[in-house]
Amino acid sequence: MSQPSVSLTDVSTYLPGEPIGADYYAQFAESDDLRDNVMFRSPAFRHHVAPDETAIDMIERAAQGLIERHGGDVIEGADVLITHTQAPDLPFYGAGGGVAHRLGMRPTWVLDLHNGGCAVFVLALNVARQLLTSGAGRTAVIAIAQNAAGQVFDQQGIRRKAQASVPGDGAAVGLVTVSDQSPILGIECRTYGEYHGEMTLSPDPPRKWWQPGTGELCIGFTESKITKVLARGNRQVPEVALAVCDRIGLASKDIDLLVTNQPNRVFLRNWRDALEVPKERHRDTFDECGNLFGAGIPINLERAISDGQVKTGEVVMMAAFAHAGDFAGAAAVRWGGRG
Q1: 6-180: which CATH topology?
Q2: Once rounded to an integer, what is the mean pLDDT over residues 67-77?
Q3: How many CA atoms lie within 13 A of 297 on its CB side?
Q4: So which residues are the signal peptide here (predicted)?
Q5: Domain boundaries, the chain
Q6: I need a labelling partner for 324 at 20 to 30 A (CA). Which of 31, 103, 222, 336 fits?
C-alpha cells in the first residue's frame, strides 16, 4: 500500500513593528575586533519584537493569513502542532501548549523543536510528514517565532557589538496536509553532533545563563569560530540540497526557487553559486529583515508566493544549516498554488 502524499499547503507570516534602519545600531557602535568581519555586515533594515510581545503573540498574528484563507476550523482541527521559539519566553518549556490554547487547537501531538535552529522549518516538515504518513492525522501546523533580535541583541551592552545589527525578528506558520496540492518531494536532514555546543553564550563577567550577574548574554564569536562556521555552512547547505536533488532526479541548476536561511550576504552568494542557481531565483529578505534565524525560510517562501515569484508546478528547494553547523536540512516542494 503506497503512502499518502503530504503537502506544504500554505504559509503565513508576521513581522513586528516598523522597520528599524541600520543607523539605529550605528549610533551605538563601539570598537569591536569583529566589526569588519563578513559575518556582521549590517542589513539596511530589520524588525524588533515589542517589549511586551510574546512568542505566542507573534505566532497568533502570523497564523491570521492561514485562518483568513482556509478558515479557523482548519487550524483548530489540526492533529499535529510543531513549534519553535528562538528565545523561549520561559526557560523550561516551549510555546506549544500556549499556542494550541491561543489558536483554539486540541491536537493529538504537540512538539516543541529546539535543535533545528535556522533549519527548523525543514526539520518540522520532516516530522510532520512522518507523522501524517504514519496515520497520526491529516493536518499539521508548524509555528516558528524568531524573537531574539529585539530581546537578546538589543540589550544595552550587546547593541554596541558588531553581532547585534544583523538579526531581525519575525514569525511564520505553515499548514501541512495529507493531499497532493503542493507535495513534499524529498527531505534530507543531517545531524553533525561533533559540532554541538560550539555556539556559546559569553557574558562578561563569565557566568552560566541561569546564574545571577551583571553580564548581558551574547553569542561567543571569535575569528577562529567564525572561520569554522563559514566553512561548515558553505559546505553543508549545498550538500543537503544536492542530496534532495539526486533523490528527486533534478539538477540543481533547474531549481525554480531556492529559499535558504540568511545569516549574511556571503552565505547567500556562496550557496547559490554552489548550486548554480541565479540570484533572481534565490529569494531572500536580508536587507529588509536581517537574519531571521528559523523564521527565514518560511518568511521568504511566503513573500515569493504572495508576489508571484513561484508559479504553480515549480519546484521550491528549501535549505539551511543551524547554530555552528550541528544540523542541516533541505526539502523540495512542488508548489501547487494556494488553491
Answers
A1: Peroxisomal Thiolase; Chain A, domain 1 (3.40.47)
A2: 97
A3: 34
A4: none
A5: 6-180, 185-335
A6: 31
Strands (E) across the chain are located at 6-14, 20-21, 45-46, 80-85, 109-112, 139-146, 170-178, 184-191, 257-260, 282-283, 315-322, 327-334
Query: For 185-335, which CATH superfamily applies?
Result: Thiolase/Chalcone synthase (3.40.47.10)
Q: Give the separation between CA 303 and CA 11, rounded to whole angstroms.
A: 9
**Exposed/middle/buried for residue 251 (C-beta within 10 Å: 0-12, 13-18, 19+):** exposed
Per-residue model confidence as pLDDT tens digits over 150-192? 999 999 989 998 899 999 999 999 999 999 999 999 999 999 9
Q: 255 — alpha (psi -120 to 50), left (phi > 0) or beta?
A: beta
Using one digit for the tens of pLDDT, what is the confidence trace for 116-160?
Answer: 999 999 999 999 999 999 999 999 999 999 999 999 999 998 999
**Mean pLDDT confidence for 91-111:** 96
